[in-house]
Amino acid sequence: MKKPLLAALFLCILATPMVWADSAPTVEILPFSIHTMENLGYLSTQIPKELEKNLDREGAIASVGSVAVPEKTDPARMDIQALRELGRKASADYLVWGSFSKVGNRYSLDAKVLSTYVESPIKAAYVEGYGMETLMGKVGELSKDVASKVLGRKTVMDIKVVGNSRIESDAIIEKIKTKKGDMYSPGAMADDIRAIFAMGYFEDIRVESQETAGGVIITFTVLEKPTLHMIKLAGNKKIEDDDILAAMDISRGSILNIRRIEDNINKIRELYKEENYHNAKVTYEITPYKEHLSDLEIKIEEGKKVMIKEIAFEGNEAFSDRKLKKVMKTSEKGFFSWITDSGVLNAEDLRQDSARLNQFYHNHGYVEASISEPEVQVDGESIHILVKIKEGAQYKVGRISLSTPEGESLILPQDDILEPLLTGKETGEVFSRETVQKDILTLSDLYMDQGYAYAEIYPAIRPDRERLEVDITFNITKGPEVYYEKIIITGNTKTREKVIRRELPIQEQALYNGSLMKRGVRNLVRLDFFEDVKVDTVKGSDENKMILKINVKEKPTGAFMFGGGYSNTDDAFGMVSIGQKNLFGRGQSLDLKAQMGGSSSKFSMSFTEPWLFDSRLTAGADLYNWTRDYDTYTRDRVGGTLSLGYPIWDYTRAYVSYAYDISDINDISIYASDLVWEVEGENVESSVKGTIAYDSRNKSFNATKGSYHKASVQYAGGPMGGDLAFTKYVAESGWLFPLFWDTVFFAHGKAGFVEENKSHGYLPTYERFYLGGINSMRGYTWEDLSPEDDDGALIGGNKFVQFNLEFHFPLVKEAGLIGLAFYDTGDVYNNGELVNLQKLRESWGFGIRWYSPVGPIRLERGYIIDPQGDEDSDGRWEFTMGGAF
Predict the structure, then answer these.
(1) For residue 49, what are the CA distances in angstroms to 102, 136, 295, 567, 881?
(2) What is the pLDDT of residues 274-328, one digit of tens each?
(3) Residue 115 lies in a domain
(4) Is there a contact between 843 and 827 (Cβ–Cβ < 8 Å)?
(5) How far apart are CA 719 and CA 686, in angstroms?
(6) Percentage of the chain surpassing pLDDT 90?
(7) Residue 194 placed within a domain
């Protein structure tokens, strides 16, 4: 029994030196000698400490300062036995010392390695470097060389990668730290494996080392992850495949990565939540296709759409839930939710609803109100939203004052500045932040119109909790008066610069005026020569000077059109026209037009000079040859008009024109009235006409805001000569009111009166008034509303009234296509008849208008209200190319 125990003990004793031999060697590092003219003595200990850290990483057990070197003794001058004695005192297997030398920017590191217990020669390690910023990196290189001598390691002779088919070996080797020629370090292999795994392309990585006579060959064996061969979607009906795939960041050919797949599954769930399918279930299954390829199938159970069932408020006392819900864009599910999308949860809309509610309260005097972020709870197929509100007290408008920096005066008396402000107009008025913001704009415009382009205006709002009033002080810093140093116009390649400058009511070296600058931009837009007009202001050479930059983008202004169509007034027609509204870049317009139809033919030429002799005087000339077949006669006419116009107020021009017309009345029907037979043959009309017109519309066709008004008096015969003699008065007015969702309400009225100057000539039937057709009373045939003679022939009236109401709504906004619904009323009266506004004829209808490439097009259907006689109650379509009222 004792012999086996003794034998085991003997084997343990024999094994003990083997354990020591296989354990990590200990290394004592002595201070380095520093040889340089610079003050770098700290490196004496810093270099050994860096060596210690690096040697520990390489697998040795290093230490610094365990044994003291005799004072003023350089280890390089000590004999080997004395050095070994120092090593033994430190209980170290190896002793390391060295030196650092530097000349200029170049330095060298020299290290010596001595075995403490084994009789062997001193081994040397050496590196060189340039620039002190590279020193620690070079210490790392020195450490590897020292470690190879201490640990007896070999050089890496080669690095191989096997098992890869899609990923290049060079790309893998590029990622690892171990390089060919380095000292082999088993500890570095773990870092290299992690680096290769981080590429995301491999399922498994193994590393092997093979020792050869010249060093070590390292081989990395990798197992690549499969590639996605196909992504299949199943179960989705509410969201298209393309929309789901677009939300994902993996696709066919991607590396199969489970984490990325799960991330994309979550993205699909979020996509369904955005569409209010909060209960959608999304799973996936991976199926091998063939070697290194797999299919990914995403299975979706959409469930039902989750809608907002309830929006509740907590803390609101001043306003009812119903009132607050109207402020929000988010709404509860309604009966017509499948049309209106009510009840659909949109996270961005809900976030903005908090701001809308907050603004609503502040605009009603609750300046301390706060709105919490809405709480959303999904309960099965319903969504419940709770909005918590802290209202606070309602404040009224208190004292309103103006404040300026010390030494700066107001540009006008305080009462004159406060007068246009909306805030504080009424006693006991509830405070509104929105109104205050409008007042800031009003004050800014007031100061900018006086030349203070850089005026700064901000309100100081001070709630008084005792009075429950808000005192408002508008702090105004007007800055310097600013003058236009330069007006720079760019982008005009065709239009002459003077054509642009004359539309600007501002000039270089003149005082800045914000309203006039905006007016000038509006004038340029109304010219319709440019696709875009951009305005930029930059500071000039001094603080009181400004450079105004106007950049225009020109568009084609010439047009050649031909085509055909159908009109209710002209039946089938063919048309060709050549027009240029910016002739030679001078802003002049010239139009030549020919139109041939079933009931009329017209040839015309018109020319307009908007700035005659570079003044604001407008001149125009028109020539025409026109044949029209009326129901009971034919009128062949040739003539022309000369006109002059001049601006008299904003948006207002006065015109005077002279017209000369020769009409031949022929092919008179036996059913024509006596008034037609009276003018059979040639009739000369010589007349002068005065007109005042106001037009502030933003566009001439499909306008959305502004108004226009016109009044004219035409006098024919007498001193003007000719066969016809009459005086005609016509006035009309049109108003456009922008509404919600880009809709527009339009109101139009027109009236006229004509009387015959019997002593000088006669009034023909074709100069009297008629209503009916697309430009007056829709639903009635052209010129259908008219007084009749005793035989029932239409003779026209000497007075009329007409009213039109329209509601416009966009159909395809970008294409200029709008829809409309209308109501027309009016009538025509004969001599001696009184206008009866209680018994006007009426019609209603709908239509579309399109600013097409060939010009404005209208297609409208009207229905007569309370038809009389043989009037059609089924409605009639009417079509025209041209402007509206």
Answers:
(1) 19, 11, 55, 100, 93
(2) 888 888 899 999 898 887 788 999 999 988 888 888 999 999 999 999 999 999 9
(3) yes
(4) no
(5) 9
(6) 53
(7) yes
Residue 316 lies in a domain: yes
Does 25 score more than 90 pLDDT?
no
- Residue 52 exposure: Cα atoms within 13 Å on the Cβ side: 15
Identify each DSSP E strand in 447-523 by its residue range: 456-464, 469-477, 483-490
Which helix (DSSP H) or strand (DSSP E) does residue 407 occupy?
A: none
* Number of C-beta neighbours around residue 836 at 10 A: 10
Domain end: 358, 390, 422, which one? Answer: 390
Averaged pLDDT for residues 339-346? 72
Please check whether residues 241 and 189 belong to one and the same domain. Answer: no
pLDDT digits (tens, 9 = 90+) for 143-157: 888 888 887 777 888
Q: Do 289 and 295 form a contact (C-beta atoms < 8 A)?
A: yes
Torsion of CA 482, 488, 491, 496, to 10 degrees: 120
Euclidean distance between CA atoms 475 and 443, whole angstroms: 11
Q: What is the pTM of this model?
A: 0.57
CA distance 152 to 185: 11
Residue 213 CA, distance from chain mean position: 70
Could you tell me if 113 and 47 lie in one domain? yes
Say how far apart CA 11 and CA 8 lie, in whole Å: 5
Q: Encoding tokens for residue 523?
A: 């004038």
Report the run of H or E that residue 622 belongs to, with start and end.
strand 618-629
What is the crossing angle of helices 514-527 and 433-448, to 10°? 90
Q: What is the pLDDT of residues 742-774, one digit of tens each?
A: 899 999 999 999 999 887 888 999 999 999 988
SS (H, E, C) 425-439: CCCCCECCHHHHHHH
For the segment 85-115, what is each residue's pLDDT rounded down to a tens digit? 888 888 888 999 999 999 989 999 999 999 8
- Whole-number average pLDDT of the chain: 87
**Distance from C-alpha of 823 to C-alpha of 784, rounded to nearest angstrom:** 17
d(CA 502, CA 504): 5
Nearest to 586 by CA among 500, 462, 673, 715: 500
HEC secondary structure over 677-725: HHCCEEEEEEEEEEEEEEECCCCCCCCCCEEEEEEEEEEECHHHCECEC
Query: Domain limits at 83?
Result: 23-151
Q: Which of 95, 96, 103, 156 is nearest to 128 (CA)?
A: 103
Q: Which amino acid is at 733?
A: S
Q: 88: domain CATH number?
A: 3.40.50.10070
Provide the pairing of β-strand 293-301 with 281-290: antiparallel
Q: With a cut of 90, say whether residue 825 has pLDDT above it.
A: yes
Domain identity same for 651 and 792: yes
Q: Which of 461, 477, 493 is the last residue of a domain?
A: 477
For residue 377, tell me if it sits in a domain. yes
pLDDT of residue 556: 87
Give residues with Cβ within 8 angstroms of 541, minimum separation 6: 485
379 and 251 in a common domain: no
Q: Count Cβ neighbours within 10 Å for each residue of 680-706 and write b for 16 or more, e otherwise.
A: eeebbbbbebebbbbbbbeeebbbbeb
pLDDT tens-digit series, residues 486-528: 999 999 999 999 999 999 999 999 999 999 999 899 889 888 8
Q: What is the DSSP letter of 87?
A: H
265 shares its domain with 414:
no
**DSSP state at residue 240:** -
- How far is residue 648's CA from residue 505's CA, in Å, rounded to a whole number? 14
Q: How far is CA 322 from CA 316, 332, 357, 384, in A?
A: 11, 11, 13, 16
Q: Which residues are within 8 A (CB) of 578 and not within 5 positions of it... i.e. 6 or more apart?
A: 559, 560, 591, 592, 593
